[in-house]
Amino acid sequence: MKRVIQLTLSIAFIATTNVAHALNCEPLDPRQQVGKKVDKSIEGSAKTLVKLIGGDISYKNTTENEVKNLYQSYPNADKLVIKGKLIYTFCTFLNDAEDLDSNEKFTKLSSFMATILDFPAEEEEENKTAKKNKAHKTVESDEFVFELKQCKGTSSAIKCSFLVTNVGSDRPLILYAKNRTYVSRIFLDSGDEILSYKSRLGSSESQNYSKATLLTGIPIKASVSFKLSGQDSNKIAAIDLRANKSSIQFRNVSLE
Hints:
By secondary structure, the protein is of the alpha+beta class. It has helices spanning 2-16, 36-51, 57-73, 79-95, 102-118, 122-136, and strands at 138-141, 144-153, 157-166, 171-176, 185-188, 193-201, 204-206, 209-214, 220-227, 235-243, 246-254.
């Protein structure tokens, strides 16, 4: 949606502006209401930025700060409409700048538009961060997706919980604790290696391995537990799960 709005603004502006005359700002007006108070603040920001107009880094930073302030002052207002109205209002004030010719106004407005449209809304940044964090906590192996939910620690034990989703066909999954062939383990940031003594997958729980048949697309709860014997740490450097014949690893995991 954002990219469509950006493209529409850019095409409308370029198609209806003749650099030999005044800028045609009307196509840039989003024609959506955000409230009189917001409009006043947008007008104030546009006036400030027109007075400070430039192309250096400090001007770009000032522009981004003005947008941030508008977002923070009016968290319930549509961020894209704020952007559109700021561009439109900036354009109308720029038209009144007597010390700039039409070519300079066109260049300044184009640069300003690029800065504003490239600046993400706060929720977009939050979504990116959330997705990045989730990516660090999700590992796919052999068409099984393991999502780390949390690791809880006490003075005597650590339990790490997961959500496992089968993205392939219906089939069994074995989650190992410790047996002759495979062992799930953790490495503490203190340098200690701790072997799992118990695993759980759905309703199956065992000190050797747990096993369940996972249906396609249906998540199931899982966990592995570890006993401590005097080790002191508030962070796991790495988790090494053994499931079927695969090794599933998570790194830099905080203990809750």
